[in-house]
Amino acid sequence: MTTAPQPPKETRSFQSILVTGGAGFIGSHVIRRLLRTHPNTKVVNLDALTYAGNLANLKDVEDHAHLHFVKGDIQDRALLDKLFEAHGFDAVLHLAAESHVDRSIDEPLAFLETNILGTAALLHAAKESWTRRGCMETALFYHVSTDEVYGSLGQEGLFSETTAYDPRSPYSASKASSDHVVRAYHHTYGLPTVISNCSNNYGSHQFPEKLIPLMIRNIVDGRPLPIYGEGINIRDWLWVEDHAAAMDVILQRGWVGDTYNIGGLNEWRNIDLVHKLIDLVDSRLGRTKGHSLGLITFVKDRAGHDMRYAIDASHLASRLGWKPSVTFEEGLSHTVDWYLENASWMEEVTSGDYQQYYAKHYDKR
């Protein structure tokens, strides 16, 4: 069995794609893009609708003829087998995961169960279905991961696809484990897989526990802006629209068995990013420059807080031709404008009203 990465014979097209976690932040952007760029493909969104799953994120496309929603858990093997049989998936785009580091510190078992066992259940369902149907040559299992599996960088260097794994939190350990399971299914069973590891995403529809939407909301409301430690931790930021575009390129032309790092080429210290957000939001609201600087509050550092993440995305650029379409300043400006223009979305999420969306719009379908 050949296990070295192999290029596709031609650009892939699919009849039916299973997207897991499609009601989440990144997943909702991916689904919109798939509906645009794969107009004749059925897209099935499987999401358990845990706290981060919000069907209102897909309100604008929920009646699309090629989009189907299924509420369910990726650990439910009977459900997975039923869906593969009913829809004949020839691609899986696996985004479903518990993904917030702070929550993983408080609730590690939920992360291990969903991110490892859920991924294993999905891999096995795909293997069984594609073996039975004889479509391994044309199918693809795309696993979406994170740069946090690589651990922490010093002041120099970048994460590449060959960087040794060194996860530091229950979240990153669970994602590193799932990456290994995906590769094991490829090497052992010949399952056609690709993996991508991305840097920090930002953009519209992001759950407000994350840094950028949390800071925007608190600046607007005049609330404290909590920053871990001294705010000197560095992250590489990737606009979610660019991430969705990169994933689409990998889905269509990625080499089977390959791994791709997706980065925004935007390294920012947390404290500098918060200063940038203060300038943007205060300006949009007609406030004087520096109006909200006094809201910055330094808090006890997160346990095991990685100092720096930075991605070398040259492999993706050279092999598949992808590069970011916006600068960080442009993407951040789009992001701030979206949150300010969609205050009702933020209010529904922070109040918990968004969790009633399924019952109101889907129960009777």
How would you characterize the overall build of this protein?
With 365 residues, this protein is of the alpha/beta class. It has a domain at 16-202 and 238-265 and 308-327: NAD(P)-binding Rossmann-like Domain (Rossmann fold, 3-Layer(aba) Sandwich), CATH 3.40.50. It contains twelve helices and twelve strands. The strands form three sheets. It has a seven-stranded parallel β-sheet with strand order 3-2-1-4-5-6-10, with helices on both faces. α8 (270-284) crosses α10 (328-341). The longest helix is centred in the N-terminal third of the chain and has 26 residues, at 108-133. The termini are far apart. The mean pLDDT is 94.
Helix segment count? 12
Secondary-structure element order, as H and E? EHEEHEHHEHEEHEEHEEHEHHHH
> Which regions are unreliable across 5 or more consecutive residues at pLDDT < 50?
none
CATH architecture of one domain: 3-Layer(aba) Sandwich
- Form type: globular
Q: What is the C-alpha radius of gyration, as a whole number of Å?
A: 20 Å
Secondary-structure-based class equals alpha/beta
Quick one: how many beta strands? 12
Biggest sheet, strands in spatial order?
3-2-1-4-5-6-10
> What is the fourth-level CATH superfamily of one domain?
NAD(P)-binding Rossmann-like Domain
The N- and C-terminal alpha carbons lie at a distance of 46 Å
Largest sheet, strands/sense/barrel:
7 strands, parallel
Looking at the structure, the CATH topology of one domain is: Rossmann fold
Fraction of residues in H or I helices: 40-55%
Percent strand equals: 15-25%
Instruction: Estimate the mean pLDDT confidence.
Output: 94
What is the name of the CATH class of one domain?
A: Alpha Beta
